[in-house]
Amino acid sequence: MSTTGLVGGNTLPVDAGVLNTDIGDIAVDGILDYLAFWIKNSLDSKIANMQASPTEADACPSANRFNYDPEDGGGGIYARNPTPALYVWWDGNSQFLKKTTLWTHVQREIHAMYIYDEIVLPGDSGARHGLLPIVNATFAKAAERGYHPSYGYNGDPVGTPIYVSLSLANLGLIYMGGSPGVLWEVPGKGTNTMGGIQRGFPALKAKFLIEERIEQDIPSDSDALIDASLSINANDGFDSETIPYVDRELEGPDGADEEP
Asked: Does residue 33 lie within any of the structural domains?
């Protein structure tokens, strides 16, 4: 019997693939790509029409998307990678959920951080004071809509819902909220500066909730070709006694092995 199956969009066992390619986390990689598209869709035109420094016209360049936590072990945040940048990663404990008789889910918190180009405070803050609220609104709308008519993940047709592409259960991608702030060149710098000129990176840290369904095992050819028995029973919800609705033999194609 085959033990190959899906948990969300991840196939277990993991295929060996090409030498030294990453293992990958389908949900994280897909959400990273999906949110980056929405950020660009929301902000590219406006940012390209602003002359004040910085002059980066791309709100989320493809090279500046990272599937890990940018926070260091000491609790500080750093922006050593090029900006603007988007980070998406899994954090917190997963939770096993028994949803129905047939289906179980794994619930995870997916975190995201959008970091904009370094700006000089207070001079550059005026024209960009609405940047982080727009990113927050974009995350909320991307999760609520669940798709974009001009977007398809990893070769899927445009308009394909992200929960379909990533095999997410229930409502797909749920936005739990975001928190704005400024990341300083040196963690901790930027406080008690008595109104002096400062340089920092506007940033929004956000959290999403997903559920990944543990799918049934995918049958191999030998599994699918055997004769099989099918029984369906139900009860009235008041006791454990069941009534048979279906009890039959399903024959495999000619030449198939008999059921063991």
From this structure: yes
